[in-house]
Amino acid sequence: MLADALKSFPDHLISIQGHSDSRSIAPALQSLYPTNWELSASRAASAVRVLREAGIDPSRMQAVGFADARPLVKEIDTVSRRKNRRIEVLLYPSQFKIKAYRPGGREPAR
What is the 8-class DSSP label of residue 13? Predict the structure, then answer.
């Protein structure tokens, strides 16, 4: 369903951003995810992989991990921590469709 929606924006770059809560990684998982940085990056990369398998061009996507640096809500309980464990999908106009600004109003070199 998400892939279908993204296909309707073929000229946009797709940034998949992974987030975590602020709790430490459980000891049993620390060999895979030493910190929340690795966990959030893996979360984003997993979403990129699923979208690629659904037909989204991988050259349009990037995976970014933010760990617990950008919480949606203040963490006070299990429910609030769950809200901070997420991915976000952002669309940006393709860099190839944006004209570069040149001082003096000159056209960009081709």
Answer: E
Q: pTM for the complete prediction?
A: 0.81
Contact 109, 38 (CB under 8 A): no
Question: How far is it, in rounded angstroms, from Cα 82 to Cα 73?
Answer: 10
* pLDDT level of residue 94 (50, 70, 90 thresholds): confident
What backbone torsions phi and psi does residue 13 show, to the nearest 5 degrees? -85, 150
Distance CA 17, CA 31 (A): 22
Q: Phi and psi for 63 in degrees, rounded to 5?
A: -110, 130
- Spatial separation of the C-alpha atoms in residues 36 and 19, rounded to whole Å: 8
Q: How far apart are CA 97 and CA 64, in angstroms?
A: 23
The CATH number of 2-105 is which of 3.30.1360.70, 3.30.1330.60, 3.30.390.50, 3.20.20.150?
3.30.1330.60
